[in-house]
Amino acid sequence: MARDRDLTDALAAQVAEAYEAGRVLRIRGGDSKAFYGREPRGEPLDLGGHRGIVSYEPTELVLTARAGTPLAEIEAVLEENGQMLAFEPPHFAGGATLGGAVAAGLSGPRRAHFGAVRDMVLGVRCLNGRGQPLRFGGQVMKNVAGYDLSRLMAGALGTLGVLLEVSLKVLPRPPANHTLVLERPPAEIFETSEAWIRQGLPLSATAQDGDRLYVRLSGEARAVENAARHIGGDRLDDAPGFWRAVRDHQHRFFAQGSLPLWRLALPPGTPLPALDGPRFIEWRGMQCWQRTEAPAARVREIAAASGGHATLFRGGEEERTDTFQPLPQPLLDVHRRLKSAMDPAGILNPGRLYAEL
Q1: pTM to 2 decimal places
Q2: How far is CA 328 from the centre of its chain?
Q3: Is residue 89 part of a domain?
Q4: Same-domain pairing of 159 and 13
Q5: CATH code at 41?
Q6: Is 330 domain-assigned?
Q7: CA angle 351, 352, 356 (to 5 degrees)
Q8: 168 and 289 share a domain?
Q9: pLDDT (tens digit per residue) in 275-309
Q10: Count of domains for the chain
Q11: Can you tell me the distance from the alpha carbon of 87 to that of 115, in angstroms, rounded to the nearest whole number?
Q12: Do 126 and 196 fall into the same domain?
């Protein structure tokens, strides 16, 4: 294990120098998500060495760590104490860090039942675009008037600031888990899952690969066993391996074909999108991974018509200028004002989220 290090002063100096010189910076941690978002550019600002768990109170369910701390290291410490990161962040190719997980705002299979990244962020320390250290939030859950800037960092892809530390709410690890496999068509995933939830069954993840429905149950052993008998189906032998593969896009669906991979976020109960190509469904139907050769405008039109949005998750290099669903002008104006306040010279990950930011 690498030695814990606090590089705050060095990082602040590098950002301040870039601000004075007008040089843009590309914020980099483990680089496990370099493919995500629009094309990164600028001088690297490496946070991989800024690492270490700053504080951890298992009885308080709170952990604070530096942004460059590997997720694997944090998860190992939590597991020793019977706890977990409830949003099940993806690692992808490995080397994923806490800062990258928060900046990307991506959650894994458990998200629909336990909450997203932003729901678990209690507070952050960061550098603004002038290299000045700032602190938002704290280490307790509370209501916040106005912008909760600590949670706005989730999914901002580093465009609002350089994350230095993140305080997270963690949760107890369920004592028992079982994954069941059923023959159910994709169109039934939402209705079926909702019926089980209304019955109080402890669902913690669902996935549908086109032929089979996978259901993970998590909780007290007796409740999980009773739920498994009620649902039926076959038990999956290597359930942890299956859900890791789904989380990290190592499942065979994500390896097949060369068509662009879209992520469609859909409201509950939305019919499956009318798009050709293979798909993989999670979150009771609210997250649809779609491979299709349909034009970007068509994919986004279908997602928007249902009240959702579409992200071009992986595609050819020529596609990286058209990644996220375009924002309505009033919302884009809000984003611009936030960017201007936090990064007045626009040097932090410029254009990574939207060209205008």
Answers
A1: 0.94
A2: 23
A3: yes
A4: yes
A5: 3.30.465.10
A6: no
A7: 30
A8: no
A9: 999 999 999 999 999 999 999 999 999 999 999 99
A10: 3
A11: 6
A12: no
Range of the domain at 138: 8-172+335-342
pLDDT for residue 145: 45
Taking phi first (over 0 means left), then psi (-120 to 50 degrees means alpha), and beta for anything else, what does residue 352 get?
Answer: alpha
Distance CA 299, CA 1 (A): 44
pLDDT of 143: 45
pLDDT at position 285 is 95
Strands 279-282 and 43-46, by their bridges, are unpaired
Sign of CA dihedral 294, 297, 303, 308: positive
Cα 26 → chain centroid: 19
What pLDDT score does 40 carry?
Answer: 86
Q: Answer yes or no: are the C-beta atoms of 222 and 210 closer than 8 Å.
A: no
Please state the three-class secondary structure of the chain as a single string: CCCCECCHHHHHHHHHHHHHHCCCEEEECCCCCCCCCCCCCCEEEECCCCECEEEEECCCCEEEEECCCEHHHHHHHHHHCCEECCCCCCCCCCCCEHHHHHHHCCCCCCHHHHCCHHHHEEEEEEECCCCCEEEEECCCCCCCCCCCHHHHCCCCCCCCCEEEEEEEECEECCCEEEEEEECCCHHHHHHHHHHHHHCCCCEEEEEECCCCEEEEEEECHHHHHHHHHHHCCEECCCHHHHHHHHHCCCCHHHHCCCCCEEEEECCCCCCCCCCCCCEEEEHHHCEEEEECCCCHHHHHHHHHHCCCEEEEEECCHHHCCCCCCCCCHHHHHHHHHHHHHHCCCCCECCCCCCCCC
Asked if 353 and 41 touch (Cβ cutoff 8 Å), the reply is: no
The residue type at 33: K
Give the largest CA-CA distance in the chain.
Answer: 65
Same domain, 309 and 192: no
Residue 291: how many other CB atoms lie within 10 Å: 21
pLDDT along the chain (357 residues), means of 10: 85 98 96 92 96 96 98 98 98 94 98 96 97 84 58 96 98 97 94 96 97 97 97 96 97 90 96 94 97 93 95 76 90 96 97 94
User: What distance in Å separates the CA atoms of residue 85 and residue 96, rounded to the nearest whole number?
Assistant: 14
The answer to whether 83 touches 171, Cβ cutoff 8 Å, is: yes
Task: Tell whether 302 is covered by a domain.
Answer: yes
